Amino acid sequence: MSWAAAVSQLTGRPLVYQDMPVEAYTQVLVAGGFPQFLAEIIADAGFSATRGDWYTDSTDLPDLLGRPSTPLVDVVAATLKRNGLL
Predict the structure, then answer these.
(1) What pLDDT, in 10s, does the model give residues 22-44?
(2) Residue 69: which region, alpha, beta or left (left: phi > 0; alpha: psi -120 to 50)?
(3) Which of 19, 22, 69, 74 is most deeply packed, by most CB within 10 A?
(4) What is the SS3 string spanning the chain?
């Protein structure tokens, strides 16, 4: 589940994620104050995630934590509650 889907599910409000080309996303970040080099890194990392480059079935994180990792929907719910949005 994506973070946008989690927010929509939890709030009952539609939240649409619109993917942007790397170059366009980079320019939005630069316009928002990010240095060019950092904007390029962030935009490329986002693109890599959509390609599935960051997927792993590794258990390294739970092994390091000594507990199961927290599902995304639970993290989003806690964040919304902490900020008075739920």
Answers:
(1) 999 999 999 999 999 999 999 99
(2) beta
(3) 22
(4) CCHHHHHHHHHCCCCCCCCCCHHHHHHHHHHCCCCHHHHHHHHHHHHHHHHCCCCCCCCHHHHHHCCCCCCHHHHHHHHHHHCCCC
Answer for the pair 48, 57: CB distance below 8 angstroms, yes or no: no
Bin 83: left if φ > 0, else alpha if -120 < ψ < 50, else beta.
alpha
For residue 36, what are its two tokens? Answer: 């060019």
pTM summary value:
0.62
User: Could you read off the pLDDT of 50-76 as tens digits, one per residue?
Assistant: 888 988 999 999 999 999 999 989 999
